[in-house]
């Protein structure tokens, strides 16, 4: 089957012009469109999706770019993939999942082919390689996450700063004067945007409230039970009486186990709150208060914005933040005096 490069060569135009003509996202001169249509018919380019797009209709497909790497936390990532798929199906859309570790490669292919109506971007990094590509293609793109440079982009995310402040306030309002944050592995603070945002906001809120905050990570390249236990021990020795945990469920289990091994009860001796958890903290050995990261909230909004981008009134290129909520399970109490 012919590819878009061959269509562009046959029509004597650029690849981007072919993409614009097929997607209808930007105007193309009538004679140029006729040459492209003739090349598509002659070469048999994408006979199904191409024919629909030339007729001016949609493909009913969204691409979802989610690079799967060795350090990916699969349960969390798959929760977002599932939530996006369900949200899309409610609008009669299918999802084309792109898992290339070199994320821009797959995204570039589908944008050039005109096979999808919009692209949804997951696992967004601070200096994400898909950012400049999103700005250069005609296909509407929505980021579920926030890169450092978001100018001109439509982004959706939990308000991690407010979530961190809410967690700190929950512990401080209970009377704790030294609070701790057990975070994600070191690599998450290099490859993801939200862990450092949350950590900075937690520390800043404590400072605003006149309380000391201590933070530790839960591993290096992945979560480590030994390093997590050591972090809990060091923080307890440093006077921490309440913990916020921003990490996967296995880290929560290790924290609870270390506290139990030391004969400390929750919340009698130590208070505990989970921040931005995408799993059910009520299912832990001791149910833990949580400010949840709900995949459905982010993904539903992202799909709605993608659909709006196909209308005559596309969404503004801005950051759409989802306000945090607190679910209380009884794991926070005043410190023991």
UniProtKB/TrEMBL annotation:
TM ranges: none
KW DNA-binding (keyword) present: yes
Organism of provenance: uncultured Microbacterium sp
UniProt cross-references to Pfam families, sorted A to Z: LacI, Peripla_BP_3
Protein name listed in UniProt: Transcriptional regulator
One annotated GO molecular function: DNA-binding transcription factor activity
Domain HTH lacI-type per the UniProt entry, residue ranges: 2-56
InterPro entries registered for this protein in UniProt: HTH_LacI, LacI/GalR-like_sensor, Lambda_DNA-bd_dom_sf, Peripla_BP_I
Keyword vocabulary terms for this entry: DNA-binding, Transcription, Transcription regulation
Keyword Nucleus set for record: no
């Amino acid at each position: 089957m012919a590819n878009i490069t061959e269509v562009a060569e046959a029509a004597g135009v650029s690849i981007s012009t072919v993409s614009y003509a097929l997607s209808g996202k930007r105007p193309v001169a009538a004679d140029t469109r006729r040459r492209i249509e003739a090349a598509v018919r002659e070469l048999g380019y994408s006979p199904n999706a191409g024919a629909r797009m030339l007729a001016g209709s949609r493909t009913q497909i969204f691409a979802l770019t989610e690079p799967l790497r060795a350090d990916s936390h699969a349960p969390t990532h798959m929760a977002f993939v599932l939530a996006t798929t369900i949200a899309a199906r409610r609008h009669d859309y299918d999802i084309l999942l792109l898992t290339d570790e070199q994320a821009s490669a797959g995204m570039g292919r589908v944008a050039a082919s005109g096979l999808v109506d919009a692209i949804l971007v997951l696992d967004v990094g601070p200096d994400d390689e898909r950012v400049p590509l999103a700005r250069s293609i005609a296909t509407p793109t929505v980021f579920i996450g926030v890169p450092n440079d978001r100018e001109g982009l439509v982004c959706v995310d939990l308000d991690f700063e407010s979530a961190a402040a809410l967690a700190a306030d929950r512990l401080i309002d209970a009377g704790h004067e030294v609070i701790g944050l057990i975070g994600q592995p070191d690599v998450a603070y290099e490859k993801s945007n939200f862990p450092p945002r949350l950590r900075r906001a937690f520390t800043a809120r404590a400072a605003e409230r006149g309380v000391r905050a201590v933070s530790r990570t839960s591993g290096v390249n992945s979560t480590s039970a030994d390093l997590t236990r050591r972090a809990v021990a060091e923080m307890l020795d440093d006077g921490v009486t309440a913990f916020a945990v921003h990490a996967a469920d296995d880290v929560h289990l290790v924290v609870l186990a270390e506290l139990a091994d030391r004969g400390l009860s929750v919340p009698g001796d130590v208070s505990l709150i989970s921040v931005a958890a995408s799993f059910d903290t009520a299912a832990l050995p001791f149910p833990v208060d949580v400010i949840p990261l709900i995949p459905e909230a982010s993904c539903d909004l992202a799909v709605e914005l993608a659909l709006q981008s196909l209308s005559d009134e596309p969404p503004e290129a801005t950051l759409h933040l989802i306000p945090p909520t607190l679910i209380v399970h009884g794991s926070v109490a005043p410190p023991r005096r």
